């Protein structure tokens, strides 16, 4: 090794030759690893390319108007993406509106529990989060939907008389059958809750104890400490968690498929049946052919773009804000 | 000099183990009292009973009496939020909130009072002036508090602590994480501050105690061994243990 | 005027000595109500208990539903007979079980070696390089892509050219989902090995390759295994990609590479939604219970084996 250090390398010297061989092996090793890692990029590009190619038929047929057309008629072969897109956005919004406050407050509670119970609850939550989405779908179909139809929705519309209040009533809808956007949103929120809650809990736990004591020392209540100090300290991690939940809800198929009602129509009320992009794909794919098939690929491309956009934004956000914080600390 | 704080028979427990044994002390008003002693002898623990910050942790409890202006603050009937408004606390490491400099100082004011914007701005300036920080940050009020240097951050914490016009300021080794020049600045600040506040400072640094404080209390293994005017403690300690610590035999 | 502490607030707040001495700073009327602040705090605490109960309760409800509906269906016949169309006796899920096993193993075989190699690159060579940054970024993004899209993709590149649905295509789809996951966990686990270990190996004259494979990976092997197992658990429940690649069949999965292959998730979908018969629904629950149990057991196992990872 000292030969290299001195800058002299006699090419035929046995030690030098061995060095070169070592470097060669290492280089090969490094290259192999690099290629494997690079497969990721290849796959990403592949997704876009293949979906784009396969959906050419649809784009040619409908053009960009496909994005905001709400027709869906397999017989006359007229299709539009709008109902699916809006359905995806609506169910995701409902899921987030329900899941975010609940997981924030649950994480708030979990962090200060006595160690034994806190650990058990946290572990239980993490474990339950690994349940496959199809289980949620089945539970939604066989248990939640009937409950919604027979108890909850009548309760909201008739008993609470929410149906009579002008705007809210219109918003809720008069016909309900247990399926639809509201139920799907509920199931989705239950699915993403454990993820977001676990992330928020971890972020809360990472706050330095001295910072928390400073807040209490100044006279804050527990809620004020969390709201004003802990949240601000961990805001980037919290937002990262939100994006992760958002990403999951956006593309979720099975949990939604069973309870959304599968009607390719624009939502006009919360209790309406409808569809999401993922559900449309799963439903129609088996029998699709020709234009309809390329329409489905086009929908897939739209979903990919949405999802990709959110993920990229989330990653970029986490990366840049972490750099800023790194400097300041 | 009147007594601001009278501690009677204070015991402190971490779970089953006892950390403070029958502490009795009288803190004088508007003076600086230093608490010295070897590591782990209970100095910080004792300090943290005054604003009941130990209550954040489930298995810590204190028994006895701590009378501040005649009221036993360990009594469960006493309102902890109000207590903490009147007692400020500074920690070993500077802990500015993740907000701008202005917001850091304004936060406790907003927390406890409903003041107009201009009144808040005035109080913030008053606090920053009081903490000898105003000149250095008056152009950077809306920069992040975390962007200041260590010494400045600690002075920001001091400004934050005095923003609500407390009566007592507790300091737990405030300069242990600060460079020597900034330390000097903070020590000068303390001498200035004692005109308005009663200050209690825990310190590992005996020289600092000698420089800054009027009274000194020597702690050893959870007990108060000696408490006297600083000069007397350092030139004429009554207790053998005090003498040993001061002369560096242990600690 | 003494320092007064009231148990209950006076209407205008408490007075302090300082305020009494200096009427100009009498902020009595400008105090924010302590009572209000405390009530807000209490309310949030109440709400938090309510919400955690809701969350854990909801999930427990789901679990209990699966158990109660599925437990009655499972017996020896259920586990050893292949699935048959409705009406034919002795129907079971054996072919689906084996199919899922094959597909998942296939996914592992396809994805684990390149994923570990990729993770090694990220951790050992690409920690600070631009390429490493980009790849890490892409892996994180890929982990968030919906599995439906993966199914579509594999349909295009495998099913169409091959002319048929197949278990193999399903394995490829699951492998694509597993790949970024295992790669990132490999990177994280290798990153936890202290740098001094690498330095001592290199100082002995070992090549980077040897150091990484024989020393570092061995030190992190528990973590690597955990990552692989967790990836497996995650993909074994994935349904959407299989709908586009492996579909379903009632026969044994002998034609893994050339015919649709029976598998658990699609069986559940078919039985639960495409069939009006109660018996099929019950069978679906049984299958759902089995999948849930397997996934939970794998996760519990990894947590026990690798407890230190979670004790941050």
Share of helix of chain C, binned: over 70%
Named CATH topology of the largest domain in chain C: MetI-like fold
Major sheet strand order of chain A: 1-2
| Proportion in β-strands of chain A | under 5%
Biggest interface:
A-C, 87 and 90 residues
Mean pLDDT of chain A: 84
Rg result of chain C: 29 Å
Largest beta-sheet details of chain A: 2 strands, antiparallel
Poorly predicted tracts of residues of chain A: 324-329
Content of β-strand of chain C: under 5%
Structurally, the number of domains of chain C stands at: 2
SS content category of chain A: mainly alpha
Mean of the pLDDT scores of chain C? Answer: 83
Shape of chain C: globular
User: Kindly, what is the distance between the CA atoms of the first and last residues of chain C, rounded to a whole number of angstroms?
Assistant: 52 Å
Number of strands of chain C: 0
Overall SS class of chain C: mainly alpha
CATH class membership of the largest domain in chain A: Mainly Alpha
**Helix content percent band of chain A:** over 70%
Which spans of chain C of ≥5 residues are poorly predicted at pLDDT below 50?
Answer: 1-26
Describe the structure.
The complex is a heterotrimer of chains A (329), B (251) and C (312). Chain A is 74% helix and 1% strand. Chain A has 329 residues and is mostly helical. Chain A has a two-stranded antiparallel sheet. In chain B, strand 1 and strand 2 (17-28) form a beta hairpin. In chain B, helix 3 packs across helix 4 (117-130) and helix 4 (117-130) crosses helix 6. With 312 residues, chain C is mostly helical. Chain C folds into two domains: 1-59, no CATH class; 93-310, MetI-like (MetI-like fold), CATH 1.10.3720. Chain C has 14 helices and no strands. The chains are: A mainly alpha (329), B alpha/beta (251), C mainly alpha (312). At the A-C interface, helix 2, helix 4, helix 5, helix 6 and helix 8 of A face helix 2, helix 4, helix 5, helix 6 and helix 7 of C.
């Amino acid at each position: 090794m000292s030969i290299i250090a001195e800058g002299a390398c006699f090419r035929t010297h046995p030690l030098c030759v061995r060095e070169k061989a070592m470097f060669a092996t290492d280089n090969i090793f490094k290259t192999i690893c690099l290629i494997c890692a690079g497969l990721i990029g290849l796959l990403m590009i592949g997704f876009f390319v293949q979906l784009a190619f396969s959906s050419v038929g649809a784009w040619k047929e409908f053009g960009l108007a496909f994005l905001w057309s709400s027709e869906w008629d397999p017989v006359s072969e007229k299709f539009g993406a709008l109902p699916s897109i809006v359905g995806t956005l609506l169910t995701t919004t409902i899921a987030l509106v329900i899941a975010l406050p609940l997981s924030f407050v649950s994480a708030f509670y979990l962090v200060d529990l006595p160690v034994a119970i806190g650990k058990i609850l946290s572990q239980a939550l993490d474990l339950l989060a690994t349940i496959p989405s199809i289980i949620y779908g089945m539970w939604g179909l066989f248990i939640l939907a009937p409950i919604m139809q027979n108890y909850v929705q009548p309760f909201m519309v008739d008993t609470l008389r929410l149906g009579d209040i002008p705007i809210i009533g219109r918003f809720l809808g008069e016909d309900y059958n247990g399926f639809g956007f509201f139920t799907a949103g509920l199931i989705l929120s239950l699915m993403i809750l454990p993820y977001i809650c676990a992330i928020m809990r971890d972020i809360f736990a990472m706050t330095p104890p001295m910072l928390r004591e400073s807040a209490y020392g100044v006279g804050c209540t527990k809620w004020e400490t969390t709201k004003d100090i802990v949240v601000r300290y961990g805001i980037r991690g919290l937002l990262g968690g939100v994006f992760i939940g958002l990403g999951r809800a956006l593309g979720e198929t099975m949990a939604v498929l069973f309870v959304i009602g599968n009607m390719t129509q624009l939502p006009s009320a919360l209790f309406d049946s409808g569809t999401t992009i993922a559900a449309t794909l799963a439903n129609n794919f088996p029998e699709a052919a020709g234009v309809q098939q390329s329409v489905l690929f086009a929908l897939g491309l739209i979903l990919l773009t949405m999802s990709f956009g959110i993920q990229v934004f989330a990653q970029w956000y986490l990366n840049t804000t972490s750099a800023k914080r790194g400097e300041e600390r | 000099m009147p007594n601001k704080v009278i501690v009677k028979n204070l015991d402190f427990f971490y779970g089953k183990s006892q950390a403070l044994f029958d502490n009795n002390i009288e803190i004088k008003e508007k003076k600086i009292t230093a608490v010295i002693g070897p590591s782990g002898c209970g100095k910080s623990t004792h300090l943290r009973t005054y604003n009941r910050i130990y209550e954040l942790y489930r298995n810590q409890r204190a028994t006895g009496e701590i009378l501040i202006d005649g009221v036993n603050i360990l009594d469960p009937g006493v309102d902890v939020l109000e207590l903490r408004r009147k007692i400020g606390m500074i920690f070993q490491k500077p802990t500015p909130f993740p907000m701008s400099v202005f917001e850091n100082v304004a936060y406790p004011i907003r927390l406890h009072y409903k003041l107009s914007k201009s009144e808040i701005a005035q109080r913030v300036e008053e606090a920053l002036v009081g903490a000898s920080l105003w000149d250095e940050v008056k152009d950077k009020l809306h920069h992040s508090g975390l962007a200041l240097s260590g010494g400045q951050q600690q002075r920001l914490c001091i400004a934050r602590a005095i923003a609500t016009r407390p009566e007592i300021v507790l300091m737990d080794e405030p300069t242990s994480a600060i460079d020597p020049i900034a330390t000097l600045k903070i020590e000068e600040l303390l001498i200035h501050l004692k005109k308005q506040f009663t200050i209690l400072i825990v310190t590992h640094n005996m020289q600092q105690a000698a420089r800054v404080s009027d009274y000194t209390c020597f702690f050893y293994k959870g007990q108060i061994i000696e408490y006297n005017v600083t000069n007397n403690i350092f030139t004429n300690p009554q207790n053998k243990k005090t003498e040993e610590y001061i002369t560096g035999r242990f600690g | 005027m003494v320092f007064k502490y009231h148990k209950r607030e006076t209407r205008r707040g408490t007075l302090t000595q300082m305020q009494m001495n200096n009427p100009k700073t009498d902020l009595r009327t400008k105090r924010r109500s302590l009572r209000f602040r405390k009530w807000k705090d209490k309310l949030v605490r109440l709400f938090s208990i309510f919400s955690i109960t809701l969350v854990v309760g909801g999930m427990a409800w789901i679990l209990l539903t699966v158990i109660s509906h599925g437990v009655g269906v499972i017996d020896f016949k259920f586990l050893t007979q292949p699935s048959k169309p409705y009406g034919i006796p002795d129907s079971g899920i054996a072919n689906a079980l084996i199919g899922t096993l094959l597909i998942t193993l296939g996914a592992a075989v396809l994805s684990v070696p390149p994923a570990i190699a990729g993770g090694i690159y990220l951790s050992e060579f690409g920690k600070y390089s631009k390429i490493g940054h980009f790849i890490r970024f892409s892996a994180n993004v890929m982990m968030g892509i919906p599995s439906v899209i993966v199914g579509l993709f594999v349909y295009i590149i495998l099913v169409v050219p091959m002319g048929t649905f197949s278990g193999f295509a399903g394995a490829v789809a699951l492998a694509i989902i597993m790949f970024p996951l295992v790669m990132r966990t490999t990177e994280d686990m290798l990153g936890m090995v202290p740098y001094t270990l690498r330095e001592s190996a290199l100082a002995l004259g070992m090549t980077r390759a040897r150091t990484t494979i024989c020393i570092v990976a061995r030190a992190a092997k528990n973590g690597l295994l955990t990552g692989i197992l967790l990836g497996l658990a995650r993909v074994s429940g994935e349904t959407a990609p299989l709908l586009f690649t492996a579909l379903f069949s009632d026969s044994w999965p002998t034609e893994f590479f050339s015919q649709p292959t029976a598998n658990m998730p699609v069986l559940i979908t078919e039985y639960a939604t495409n069939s009006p018969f109660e018996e099929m629904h019950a069978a679906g629950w049984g299958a759902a219970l089995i999948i849930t149990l397997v996934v939970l057991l794998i996760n519990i196992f990894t947590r026990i084996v690798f407890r230190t990872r979670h004790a941050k």
